[in-house]
Amino acid sequence: MLAMYIVLESALGMICDAPEAYLGQPGFESLKRVPATWDETRVIVAVPGKYITIARRKGFDWYIGAITNSEGRNLTLI
């Protein structure tokens, strides 16, 4: 679910509950750092309806997100 904040482009990315409900939960610190806008976007690999891996840059920082359908996959990034 965390990857969707990078993969899906939305100016209104938000969590579905009060932020206090996420305190101490795995991934919450990372989620707080995801930018709302991007300077650059690159699709690494994608097959519509199956999977996508995308890289987005804000300033000097790159964020990578990958999502898939119901089939498990392995991904190697170099």
TrEMBL record:
GO molecular function per UniProt: hydrolase activity
Highest taxon in the source lineage: Bacteria
UniProtKB keywords: Hydrolase
One protein family per Pfam: GH97_C
Boundaries of every Glycosyl-hydrolase 97 C-terminal oligomerisation domain copy: 37-77
Protein name, UniProt field: Glycoside hydrolase family 97 C-terminal domain-containing protein
